[in-house]
Design goal:
The complex is a heterotrimer. Chain A is α/β, with parallel strands linked by helices. Chain A has helices at residues 25-35, 57-65, 86-104, 121-138, 150-157, 173-176; strands at 17-22, 44-49, 70-75, 111-115. Chain A has a single domain (17-176), classed as Rossmann fold (3-Layer(aba) Sandwich). Chain A is 39% helix and 13% strand. The longest helix of chain A has 19 residues, at 86-104. Chain B is built from nine helices and seven strands, in the order βαβααβααβαβββααα. In chain B, the strands form two sheets. Chain B has a four-stranded parallel sheet with strand order 3-2-4-5, sandwiched between helices. A three-stranded antiparallel sheet of chain B has the order 1-6-7. In chain B, strand 4 (88-91), helix 6 (95-104) and strand 5 (109-112) form a beta-alpha-beta unit. The longest helix of chain B is centred in the N-terminal third of the chain and has 18 residues, at 39-56. Chain C has eleven helices and eight strands. In chain C, 37% of the residues lie in helices and 14% in strands. Chain C has an eight-stranded parallel barrel with strand order 1-2-3-4-5-6-7-8, surrounded by six helices. The radius of gyration of chain C is 19 Å and the shape is globular. The chains are: A alpha/beta, B alpha/beta, C alpha/beta. Chains in contact: A-B, B-C. Chain B binds chain C through residues 153-168, 170-171, 181, 184, 187-188, 199-200, 202-206, 208, and chain C through 86-87, 91, 113-116, 118-119, 127, 129-135, 138-139, 150, 166-168, 171-173, 176, 179-180, 182-183, 186-187, 195, 242-243.
Chain lengths: 179, 227, 331
């Protein structure tokens, strides 16, 4: 069951956004935002992944196919990736998928990657809020099918790389960011 | 896949004349699949060369090896130790592998033991037919899946020519074997698909600059380049 | 009376436009630098044909280039149809040749794919085939009517040619041959010469389909004839030449005569009969006599077929004629 009402005529459009956040800075910065009581739109559903470098083009495309109006990738600041170049590969992958989105008629601005330090909860909240505003202005994704349930379907598509909160590798805020 | 045929033995002898320590290097990908230059065939060629040397009363040290794929640097690393022992490498790979060997082992004399001939497929076991011309601008979508560039002897785009007879090309193979008229095949296929309109449309001149005619080509997958 | 705008102003064009039954011949240049061979053949044919085709490295055997030969023919009293194949030249060379031909006063061209390189005496050569015959027709049409090179560049003075093509009513796929002719019409061909006909009933069937498409009104069709020189030739053409349909009764008829002169005479007689029969077919605008290496038979055949005298029209020499003033018609 979708957490959000599907967009229909007359009702204001609420974008459904899927976020992929790395297990270190990415998810930590989201956690920090929560800890700091910095609000960010509930329409963003975060999926925790081990490292943004684990993302392949198909994951991002499947998120859009699942009905996401926007997809955001949040990783460590460049140079601070725990796996050294994971976030650099992710940047290259995101750039490539943006080209593919353009080919399919989906605005490339619906996909974005941000590099945010773990403790920067304020930065996380501000960034994703601005991203949600961008998506709201763009309207529903052209690739979205009626009745889409992006959070569930995207998570299913990301199944083999998503980490649950119970995963022994999932880090909390204190452990998150490498010093 | 890429197909190749072993050069005539006399030609190989002429190429290797004067050398008494030779490593025959096979490749376990395309040329192995077309039964020309895999490890098995490399072993056979080495054996033949040794026997010929013996019959001629010549000294010859000749062994064989094979790379998983002779056109990849990492796979050549795996045979580098063996290659190091020989001044002359007789490669049974396709032209790509031979050149990779020549580049990687720059101090060696790398010689071709095969003639790379086509991009073909096994129509039936042990019979390969040319299928693709690597023209860089594929038209298979409008020709019913039949390539007019290499399956038509004249590379017509608005075929057939006046020489098509009984579904056969006016040209015969080197041993007089019949060649199917590609445009008869295209015509029949498009008819069967209900796409005759494609037969009536005039196809404009081909952009050969996308083929090898435009110069040696290069391809880059920028999304996969190391960051 | 307003000036007629001719596509080329050639004698052949004018004769065809007037609805007169046209007669064209064919001449194979020599495998040597001896231009007098063509000059002699041209003089022999002059007055018996309206234009003579000059072949282009026919059967992939090197001969004097068709442009040079066409020029020699025109200097010796007969208008030329310059044949151009796609086998030996790319689009640059072909366009350059057509400009050169126009500058020399040649006004008819025939667009062909060309026999495969493996047929000839240089089988190791690289067959070019940058274009095919249909693209060639369209290219010439655009040069003439749009004043554009194949790349799209404009030209100030365009080559004006009557554009011909060939068609083989007997080749496969048989049901596609009329569509292939239609493609050539769409590409811009003005006239077509068919492969030589021996099976007249089959040709009539093809003409039925041609007329059903209305093609005979869009393109001038010249029926091809090759006089048989002997039974050996007939048998060879029947069995060894792709796309040739020679009924057994024709072979038998010639073979029934004695070898040499009697068989030749029968061959010529047969040719005359066929010309007369073909002339009766609706949509046939003329005949194309391919008596290669037997050009001397042509005057006799044309005369016996009742096609002489040919309309007298001096062929073009040298510079292009001014199209605006070109109003001469056949008598």
């Amino acid at each position: 069951m979708s957490s959000f009402p599907p967009h229909s005529d007359g009702e204001p459009f609420e974008p459904q956004i899927v976020g992929l956040a790395c297990n270190h800075c990415g998810y930590a910065s989201a956690d920090s935002a929560g800890g700091l009581r910095r609000a960010y739109p509930p329409a963003i559903s975060l999926v925790r992944i081990p490292c943004t470098g684990r993302i392949e083009a198909i994951h991002l495309l499947k998120a859009f196919e699942a009905g996401a109006d926007g997809v955001v990738v949040v990783g460590c600041v460049e140079g601070d990736c725990l796996y050294s170049t994971g976030n650099l590969w992710a940047r290259q992958c995101v750039d490539h998928v943006k080209e593919m989105l353009t080919e399919t008629g989906v605005e490339p601005e619906r996909l974005e990657m941000y590099n945010i330090p773990g403790p920067n909860g304020a930065g996380f909240a501000a960034t994703v809020t601005a991203f949600a505003e961008r998506i709201k202005a763009l309207g529903p994704s052209p690739a979205k099918r009626p009745g889409a349930q992006p959070q569930e379907d995207a998570r299913a598509a990301l199944g083999n790389i998503a980490l649950s909160d119970n995963d022994p590798h999932a880090v909390t805020l204190e452990e998150g960011h490498a010093q | 896949m890429i197909t190749a045929e072993r050069k005539p033995f006399d030609e190989i002898l002429a190429l290797t004349a004067g050398h008494d320590k030779i490593l025959v290097a096979g490749c376990e990908t395309c040329v192995a699949v077309c039964l020309t230059g895999g490890e098995k065939e490399a072993e056979i060629l080495a054996s033949e060369l040794r026997m010929k040397a013996q019959a001629d009363g010549r000294e010859l040290t000749c062994e064989h090896t094979a790379a998983i794929r002779q056109c990849e640097w990492e796979y050549l690393d795996m045979i580098a130790d063996k290659v190091a022992e020989y001044p002359v490498i007789l490669s049974m790979a396709c032209g790509i592998g031979i050149q990779a060997m020549a580049e990687k082992f720059a101090d060696k004399l790398v010689l071709p033991a095969v003639n790379t001939n086509m991009l073909g497929m096994p129509q039936e076991h042990a019979v390969w037919l040319e299928r693709c011309g690597a023209c860089g601008d594929c038209v298979l979508g409008v020709t019913g899946g039949i390539c007019p560039i290499v399956r038509c002897s004249k590379s017509l785009l608005n075929g057939p020519c006046g020489g098509s007879h009984d579904g056969k090309c006016e040209v015969t193979g080197p041993n007089g074997e019949e060649i199917e008229c590609a445009w008869q095949l295209i015509h029949d296929k498009l008819r069967a698909q209900g796409r005759e309109d494609l037969l009536l449309a005039i196809t404009p001149p081909k952009d050969w600059s996308k083929s090898n005619s435009g110069g040696p080509r290069k391809m880059v997958r920028k999304e996969a380049k190391p960051v | 009376m307003s000036a007629v705008t001719w596509k080329s102003g050639s004698k052949l064009e004018q004769i065809l436009a007037a609805g007169s039954f046209a007669v064209t011949g064919e001449c194979g240049p020599p495998k040597s630098a001896d231009g007098s061979v063509i000059a002699n053949k041209a003089r022999m044919l002059a007055g018996y044909v309206d234009a003579v085709n000059i072949t282009d490295n026919q059967t992939a055997v090197v001969r004097i280039a068709s442009m040079a030969s066409a020029h020699i023919a025109q200097d010796n009293g007969v208008e030329a149809v310059m044949q151009v194949t796609c086998r030996d030249r790319n689009r640059l060379a072909i366009q350059a040749d057509i400009l050169g031909a126009a500058a020399l006063g040649i006004k008819n061209v025939l667009c062909l794919t060309g026999d495969h390189i493996s047929f000839g005496n240089h089988p190791q050569a690289k067959g070019v085939h940058d274009l095919d015959s249909i693209q060639l027709i369209r290219m010439f049409k655009d040069m003439r009517d749009e004043k554009r090179f194949q790349c799209g560049d404009e030209m100030t003075v365009e080559p004006r040619f009557l554009i011909g093509c060939a068609e083989n009513p007997f080749a496969d796929p048989f049901d596609f041959r009329v569509h292939r002719l239609k493609k050539k019409v769409l590409a811009g061909a003005d006239f077509v010469q068919t492969q030589c006909i021996f099976n007249v009933p089959k040709f009539k069937k093809w003409m039925e389909q041609v007329r059903a498409e209305g093609l005979h009104q869009e393109i001038k069709i010249l029926a091809g004839i090759t006089p048989i020189k002997g039974a050996g030739m007939a048998r060879y053409m029947k069995s060894s030449v792709p796309g040739m349909d020679v009924p057994q009764e024709i072979v038998d008829r010639v073979a029934a005569k004695e070898k040499g002169e009697p068989q030749q005479a029968e061959g010529k007689k047969l040719a005359v009969e066929m010309i007369k029969e073909l002339a009766e077919i609706e949509g046939v605008a003329g005949v194309h006599i391919m008596a290669v290496e037997w050009e001397q038979a042509v005057p006799e055949i044309v005369e016996a077929a009742g096609l002489t005298p040919r309309p007298s029209q001096p062929p073009n020499r040298g510079a292009r004629r001014d199209r605006e003033c070109d109003q001469q018609h056949t008598s």
